[in-house]
TrEMBL record, chain A:
<keyword id="KW-0813">Transport</keyword>
<keyword id="KW-0479">Metal-binding</keyword>
<feature type="transmembrane region" description="Helical">
    <location>
        <begin position="85"/>
        <end position="108"/>
    </location>
</feature>
<dbReference type="GO" id="GO:0020037">
    <property type="term" value="F:heme binding"/>
</dbReference>
<dbReference type="GO" id="GO:0046872">
    <property type="term" value="F:metal ion binding"/>
</dbReference>
<keyword id="KW-0349">Heme</keyword>
<comment type="similarity">
    <text>Belongs to the MsrQ family.</text>
</comment>
<dbReference type="GO" id="GO:0030091">
    <property type="term" value="P:protein repair"/>
</dbReference>
<dbReference type="GO" id="GO:0010181">
    <property type="term" value="F:FMN binding"/>
</dbReference>
UniProtKB/TrEMBL annotation, chain B:
<dbReference type="InterPro" id="IPR000572">
    <property type="entry name" value="OxRdtase_Mopterin-bd_dom"/>
</dbReference>
<comment type="subunit">
    <text>Heterodimer of a catalytic subunit (MsrP) and a heme-binding subunit (MsrQ).</text>
</comment>
<keyword id="KW-0732">Signal</keyword>
<feature type="binding site">
    <location>
        <begin position="72"/>
        <end position="73"/>
    </location>
    <ligand>
        <name>Mo-molybdopterin</name>
    </ligand>
</feature>
<dbReference type="GO" id="GO:0030091">
    <property type="term" value="P:protein repair"/>
</dbReference>
<keyword id="KW-0500">Molybdenum</keyword>
<protein>
    <recommendedName>
        <fullName>Protein-methionine-sulfoxide reductase catalytic subunit MsrP</fullName>
        <ecNumber>1.8.5.-</ecNumber>
    </recommendedName>
</protein>
<comment type="similarity">
    <text>Belongs to the MsrP family.</text>
</comment>
<dbReference type="GO" id="GO:0043546">
    <property type="term" value="F:molybdopterin cofactor binding"/>
</dbReference>
């Protein structure tokens, strides 16, 4: 096990994180192409919207997994975390855009009424809003300007943001379905691992 | 026959069969296989008679009606029924008719269909999830059947039940809903001429994913009321058990009439989107009683539709 982790870590050291910015958006382009050409079935708008949202959630859950993977398995994906998070945010932006423009046809009256009155939309929107300052302060310059301690505190907003995203999914399905439950459970486990090691984490950051 | 009709559609407004067959041919592209299967379908048609109850709106493509379905017995995904429903045995098929009827019994489907005149009914279809379609059903009026079996004077409701056969219906192995799926109507709703039992689609036998071999279609109610693959019809004097209503009474009422003014608690019902209109489909306003207000509003005179949703 340790050997596999070592080999993986060594191999990953040779991969530039910027590869993710090129590769990760490709599925979005492919789905859009399918949507244009009838490959997404009878309801391409809903299909596109769901795929974008699900991909965004998967990437953001992967971001939450980076720290536990390092702590418990020694797998070091830290260099990729920012790219994963920004691409995840990119998918959530596309998901939101698809909802606003394709699904809701920019019917702002109905859009604002839905944000205010439909819990799953309120929750999803709140998650998105929490991510905006994180995306805006993702550059090295922003980290320097804020200082590491303050930057770290601000970026704890990622925890509630992903949790809200997973709740958003659970709240929108009809009846009891597996997938949203699995995403929410994964998010909760990844967050709980942080609570458990919270004290140790703080000691390390103080060193 | 013209007596009760006050709609503004004319006979000449109905899309001629050849026109939609041509449209399907175009959709199928130049593929020779597609054209061949269409020709086959046209030959094997059920020969349903056109009906004055049909809308003149262009029907949704066969491909979309048969690939985007809610039929949780085969899975909760929209594509699951088209993939899984082939396992379903629909021959032999019988329907048990019991309760407050004069001639109860278990009827073979062939006997039920003997002597009925199959009509093509092109109806708007509105799902509670805010998507819609225009569907050329083939069927007959439910009241024809109810009159044949004889409704007792004390009957007030009709209850329906879907087949439950887990070995052929993989979705029923999990308790997503309280199986078997059940639905119900008030007797006057069931006797309305718009309410049909459908056995076909696009002049062909009903595909399994659409509720073969026999299903209910109530075009002014949300789609889940139109129960599929019926094995039992019971006349009762009490309001029947309805699956979605029991699963979540706040979200799914017994009546579940299409109503743009009464929202689902989690989403607006003011607008809807037609399936099959592509990536740039526009939302259209949802019509009261799904556009059948003139025909059915009288059934609910004096009722508060916000309370009886």
């Amino acid at each position: 096990m340790g050997r596999i982790v070592d080999l993986t870590n060594r191999a990953l050291r040779r991969v530039a994180p910027s590869v993710l910015y090129v590769l990760a958006p490709l599925p979005a382009g492919w789905w859009l192409w399918q949507g244009f050409t009838g490959g997404l079935g009878a309801e391409p708008i809903r299909a596109l919207e769901q795929r974008l949202g699900e991909a965004g959630l998967q990437l953001l859950i992967a971001v939450l997994a980076v720290t536990p993977l390092r702590r418990y398995l020694g797998l070091n994906l830290l260099r990729f975390r920012r790219a994963l998070a920004l691409v995840g945010f990119f998918y959530i932006c596309l998901h939101l855009l698809a909802w606003l423009a394709l699904d809701m046809n920019l019917l702002w009256g109905q859009i604002f009424a839905d944000i205010a009155r439909r819990p799953y939309i309120t929750v999803g929107m709140l998650g998105f809003v929490l991510m905006v300052p994180l995306a805006l302060t993702s550059s090295d310059r922003a980290i320097r300007r804020l200082g590491p301690a303050q930057w770290r505190r601000l970026h704890r907003l990622a925890y509630p943001a992903v949790l809200l995203g997973a709740c958003h999914y659970l709240l929108l399905v009809k009846g009891w379905q597996w997938e949203p439950v699995i995403y929410l459970a994964a998010t909760c486990v990844l967050l709980a691992l942080r609570l458990e090691t919270g004290a140790g984490g703080r000691r390390r950051s103080a060193q | 026959m013209a007596g009760g009709w006050k709609g503004d559609q004319r006979w000449s407004d109905v899309t001629p069969k050849q026109a939609w067959l041509d449209r399907r041919a175009l959709l199928a592209g130049a593929g020779a296989a597609g054209l061949a299967s269409l020709a086959g379908a046209a030959v094997a048609g059920l020969g349903a008679k056109p009906s004055r109850w049909s809308t003149d709106e262009p029907p949704t493509a066969y491909e979309h009606i048969t690939s985007y379905n809610n039929f949780y017995e085969f899975g909760t995904g929209k594509e699951d029924p088209a993939r899984e429903a082939h396992r379903l045995t629909i021959d032999p098929w019988s329907v048990r008719i019991d309760g407050l009827v004069e001639r109860p019994g278990t009827y073979d489907l062939g006997d039920l269909l003997k002597g009925v005149t199959l009509e093509e009914r092109i109806y708007r279809f509105r799902c509670v999830e805010a998507w819609s379609a225009v569907i050329p059903w083939v069927g007959f009026e439910l009241r024809d059947l109810l009159n044949r079996v004889g409704v007792s004077p004390s009957a007030k409701y009709v209850a329906f039940e879907t087949l439950l056969r887990p070995e052929e219906m993989p979705g029923t192995r999990r308790r997503v809903l309280d199986w078997p799926y059940r639905e119900g109507l008030r007797l006057d709703e069931a006797m309305h001429p718009l309410t049909i039992l459908a056995t076909g689609l696009y002049d062909e036998p009903l595909p399994k994913q659409n509720g073969a071999p026999i299903r209910l279609v109530v075009p002014w109610k949300y789609g889940f009321k139109s129960i599929k693959s019926i094995v039992r019809i019971t006349l009762t004097d009490t309001q029947p058990y309805c699956t979605w209503n029991q699963a979540n009474p706040r979200e799914y009422g017994f009546y579940s009439n299409v109503n743009p003014n009464v929202d689902h608690p989690r989403w607006s019902q003011a607008t809807e989107r037609r399936i099959g209109e592509g990536l740039f489909a526009r939302r259209r306003p949802t019509l009261m009683f799904n556009g059948y207000e003139k025909e059915v509003a009288g059934l609910y005179a004096g009722m508060d539709l916000r309370k009886f949703y």
